[in-house]
Amino acid sequence: MDMLNADLQLKNDASIRKKSKAKSSDEDDAGFHFIAFVPVQGRVWKLDGLERQPQNLGAISDDWVLQVAPEIETRMAQYEDGQIEFAILSLVKEPLTQLVATLAENVKGIVSIRQRLLQLQCDQGGLQPDTAAGNDLGVEDLLLGPSEQYRLSQEAIDQAVLSPEVEQHLKSDDIVGSSAFAQELGIAQASIRASIRDEIKAIQADDDRAASRRSDKGLLAKGLLQVLERMGRISIFMESACCY
Question: Is the pLDDT of residue 119 over 60?
């Protein structure tokens, strides 16, 4: 039996079990299968285990999740009040991964604008790189490269995509405006780094809680075996095990 027929069989079985409650049409009967909504190549697709092919829901708008919300709400509305015969699961990126990517973009933007400011000030004022005002954005403890503490690699920085605002300042000759924007990026970086620290602490706390739930029963088992050995019970158990 292939997957489609298996899903259809499950659907039919579900219809028989709850035909007194369910609506008569096949479309209204959810059965027991998975429905996924995914954004692929600029369009939103609905993958239904009871359909032979994906359904194109249209081009992706600003927020594709809002596009599929009516589809989900319609299916949820098919159930009577108090019936919970469905579950919703969202597959998302780990928050820490997104935060590190944001930090990589921030660092690359600051470094790029700093380099542009140095170039402009040297060209316009004849200043040396080490005396150019653009070399200091006035932001304390600014991160300008990889960091193990924040799980930021040079590869992530190199692969980061600069925002349109940064690209605009890289083409501008406005030293004052670009300096102010770079300072804004520096201030924003402090918030990003704080969020990363909080997320790392939360992950560590979860790991610690999980580890505390796993207790080692090895010492207890060893103690019980020693007691059984002193009582002469070990040989009895071994003989019983050999009989099976």
Answer: yes
CB 86 within 8 A of CB 30: yes
C-alpha to C-alpha distance for 188 and 182, rounded to whole angstroms:
10
Chain centroid offset of residue 109 CA: 23
List C-alpha distances in Å: 164 to 60, 116, 118, 140, 153: 21, 15, 21, 26, 23
SS3 category, 56: strand
Global pTM value: 0.56
Among residues 34, 58, 38, 64, the alpha carbon closest in space to that of 48 is found at 34
Which spans in the chain are helix H?
Answer: 3-17, 64-76, 95-125, 154-159, 164-170, 175-213, 218-230, 234-242
Per-residue three-class SS string for 157-185: HHHCCCCHHHHHHHCCCCHHHHHHHHHHH
Q: Phi/psi of residue 174, each to 5°?
A: -85, 100
Residue 226 has φ and ψ, to the nearest 5°, of: -65, -40
- Mean pLDDT for the chain overall: 78
At which residue do the structure tokens 């406005």 appear?
174
User: What's the token pair of residue 147?
Assistant: 């960091």
**162 confidence band (pLDDT: 50, 70, 90):** very high
Q: What is the pLDDT of residues 172-197, one digit of tens each?
A: 888 889 989 999 999 999 999 999 99
